[in-house]
Amino acid sequence: MTRGMQQMTRSLLALVLVVLISTTLFAAGVSESGAGPTKITLTIAGRDGAYGDSLQLAADEYQKLHPEVSFEILKLSGASLFEKTVIDLRSKTGTYDLILIDDPNAPQYQEVGWLADLGAMYTKKGLSVDADFIKPALDLGRYPYNEKGKLYALPFAGNVELFAYRTDLFAKYGFGEPATWTELLEAVKVIDAKEPGVDGVVFRGTKGNPIVTAFMPIFWAFGGKVLDESGRVTINSEAGLKSLKYFLEMSKYAPEGTVMYQSAQVRDALYAGTAAVAPEVWPGWIGDLENPSVSHVVGKVKVTKHPGEVVKSSPMIGAWLIAIPESSKQKDAAFDFLLHLTGSEMQLAMSDAYGLPPSRSSVYEVESQRQKYPWYDAQHDALLNSVARPRSVKWKEIEDILGGVLQVALMGNISAESALASVEKSINEVLK
C-alpha cells in the first residue's frame, strides 16, 4: 500500500470514529458540545382561556426541573383546536406532541388509531394508573369505552355540569332542596308566580350544543337513552317523551327570549338574582358567585348535583382530555410531561391559580380549595355521578340534529311527539 493510500485510510477511519462518537452522544441525550442533554421542544395543541393559562403554568414548573425541555403551546378556540389536530393527525405530520381533546370528540381520534397507547407507556416505565383519578373522567380516555378498553388519553380538566338554586327563595316558600325534577317544578311554579322580578328558571336555549346540554340531565334522569348498548337509536321512547314534555313545561317559567340564551345570559341572571334555578351551570361560570363586587346573591345560592327522577342524578361530564399523537416523534418526553401535568401536585396548582376543575379526588379534599370554591364538594359528587355523552363518532351530527329540533319545540312550533319522531328519523339517516 502506498504512503498516500495509508494516509487516506487513516483519515477515513478517523472520520468514521468521529461520526460514531457523535451518534453515540446524541443517542445518549448529550449535546454536540458535550455540555448537557439534548434540547427538546414539545409542541402542545391546547385551548385558550384558563385551560391555556394552566398549561403554561405546568410547562413553566416543568422547565424548572427539566431546563433542557422547552414548550410551544398553541392556545386555540375549541373549533380551531379540533380542526388543526384532525388535519395534522390524519396526515401523520407529527407537528404536535400533546393535544387537548374535548371528551365527546375522543372516539373520532381513538377509533382510527391516531393516539398513542398510554397503557403501554405506563408499563414501559414500570408504572400503573393510580386510583386517585376520578373514574368517570378517566374512562373517557379509554377505547372501547369500558374498564377494559385501552387507555389513549388522561383527564386534564374534570369539567362537569352543575345545578344551582336560590336557597333563600326555596326556604321562603317552604321548599327544601329538590330531590327529583318533579319536586323542582313545583317550586319553580310557585316562585315564578309569587316573587317579583324573579323567573323560575334560566337555561341556554340556543340550538345545538347549548340546548342539548340543558336537556340531557333531565332526559337521562327520566331514563332516556339516545343510543342503546348496541348503537340502536332509542331516543323516541316513553322515557324520552316524558322528559321532553317536562322540559317544555319547565321552560314556561324561563325568561322571554330563552331560545337565544347563551352562557353569558345564564351567568348574568344567576349573579343578578333574577332566576330561582339554573339547572345548567359549569364551574367556569360561577367563579365570582361569592364575590360581593360582582354577585348580588352571595350566600344565597347553593351549587349541587342535579335532581334525579326515575334514575339517580345524571349530570353531564364535559372533561377535557390530553393525549399523545401516535405521529409524535418525542413520545417519551411527552409522556413524562403528561405525568407531571396530570399529577395531583400540578392539578392542585392549576386549580388554585385558575380554577381548573381537577380530575383527581385528592384535590377536592384540600381544605384551601374547599374554602376558595365552596361548591367543590358538590362538583366532586357530580363528577362521581356524571354521565358521558354517547361514545359515537357521529355525536356532533347527532347533537346538531337534536339541538335544532329541541329549539323548534321550545318555540312551540312542534309537539314533543313530532319532535322525537323527527329526531329519531334523522339520527338513523346519519348512522346509516
Structure write-up:
- The chain folds into two domains: 40-159 and 318-384, 3-Layer(aba) Sandwich (D-Maltodextrin-Binding Protein, domain 2); 162-316 and 394-431, D-Maltodextrin-Binding Protein, domain 2, CATH 3.40.190.
- It is an alpha+beta fold and 432 residues long.
- It has a five-stranded mixed sheet with strand order 2-1-3-10-6. The chain has a three-stranded antiparallel sheet with strand order 8-7-9.
- Mean pLDDT is 92; it is low at 1-34.
- 47% of the residues lie in helices and 11% in strands.
**How can the largest sheet be summarized?**
5 strands, mixed
Give the beta-strand count: 10
Number of helical elements: 18
Assigned CATH architecture of the largest domain: 3-Layer(aba) Sandwich
Give me the side-by-side strand order of the main sheet.
2-1-3-10-6
How large is the radius of gyration? 26 Å
Name the assembly state: single chain
Shape: globular
Task: Using the coordinates shown, work out and report the CATH topology of the largest domain.
Answer: D-Maltodextrin-Binding Protein, domain 2
Give helix and strand order, one letter per element, not per position: HEHEHEHHHEEEEHHHHHEEEHHHHHHH
Q: Superfamily at the CATH H level of the largest domain?
A: Periplasmic binding protein-like II
Average pLDDT score: 92
Structural class: alpha+beta
Number of separate domains:
2
- The percentage helix is 40-55%
Our estimate of the beta-strand percent is 5-15%
- Calculate the terminal CA-CA distance, rounded to whole Å: 77 Å
Low-confidence parts, pLDDT < 50 over ≥5 residues?
1-34
The level-1 CATH class of the largest domain: Alpha Beta
